Amino acid sequence: MTVEVFKTNVNRRKYAKALLVEIHKTFAGYHANFDLDDCDNILRVQCNSGTICANTMILFLKRFGYRAEVLTD
Questions:
Q1: How many domains does the chain have?
Q2: What pLDDT score does 58 carry?
Q3: How far apart are the C-alpha atoms of 48 and 68, rounded to whole Å?
Q4: Are 40 and 47 in contact (CB under 8 A)?
């Protein structure tokens, strides 16, 4: 299992929900969720088989007008 955590500028639940629908449609093997209560508006992405390409997810969010960056431990 692979998990990647991103800091984002997504700050509204309705936009987060819409993005999650698109993420799950586009990346069938990914499970994602937002934590908008966190000051970094966290996006967590999990993949049970294979790896997560962080750059692809960053570019994906950029297509919708949002910024994301990988949070490191």
A1: 1
A2: 98
A3: 22
A4: no
Extract the tokens encoding 71. Answer: 């949070």
What CATH number did the domain enclosing 50 receive?
Answer: 3.30.70.100
Query: With 0-12 CB in 10 A as exposed, 13-18 as middle and 19+ as buried, what is 60?
Result: middle
Predicted confidence at residue 28, as pLDDT, reads: 87
Beta bridge partners of 46: 3, 31
Cβ(2)–Cβ(64) below 8 Å? no
Decide: 67 and 61 in contact? Cβ < 8 Å: yes
pTM of the model: 0.94
- Tally of CB atoms within 10 A around 42: 17
Report helix, strand or coil for 45: strand
Residue in this structure with the two tokens 């800091």, named with its chain if needed: 7
